[in-house]
């Protein structure tokens, strides 16, 4: 069993897609995609050489992938392992690994000052008392009733407006509902003569 590293995967490529690609050239025993890289287990060294020869530099969904022999000391054999991928211990999963530089959840307890770590682990420590929440819930229910009342009222008004707007209302000066205004010169002459 040979483990290959596949780097430079485009976003959204899953193990099924990668397995289909490799299966065109070699027999794939297992395929694990992790973000933008993956590990593919093939049956023999010859299959590994064929995969590297055929697929190294292959353009997958617009991005060039690279394939190398895996140098990882962990999980040489396919199958789900209960060990941490980063350090190899059975005491924790990879997400909780203390060797992971990006794992801040373990560092929070030491940087929180004088709060004991047991207080942080206790989920009830910062929980609100139920009696404190009753007035908030009552306010929520009142607001909800008002919301639905005004929403229903608005919908009725909009419905009434749409039924009224479907009637044709004559517009002045367009369809002759009103006579045209007199010319301005006659208006001034009238004011001058009779005004």
Automatic annotation (TrEMBL):
RRM domain ranges (all copies): 2-72
Alphabetized GO MF terms: mRNA binding
Transmembrane regions: none
Classification via SUPFAM superfamilies: RNA-binding domain, RBD (SSF54928)
SMART domains to which the protein is assigned, alphabetical: RRM
InterPro entries, per database record: Euk_RNA-bind_prot, Nucleotide-bd_a/b_plait_sf, RBD_domain_sf, RRM_dom
Keyword Translocase found: no
Keyword set, alphabetical order: RNA-binding
Domain of life: Eukaryota
Pfam families xrefs: RRM_1 (PF00076)
GO CC annotation: nucleus
PANTHER family documented for this protein: OS02G0815200 PROTEIN (PTHR48025), RRM DOMAIN-CONTAINING PROTEIN (PTHR48025:SF1)
Record protein name field: RRM domain-containing protein
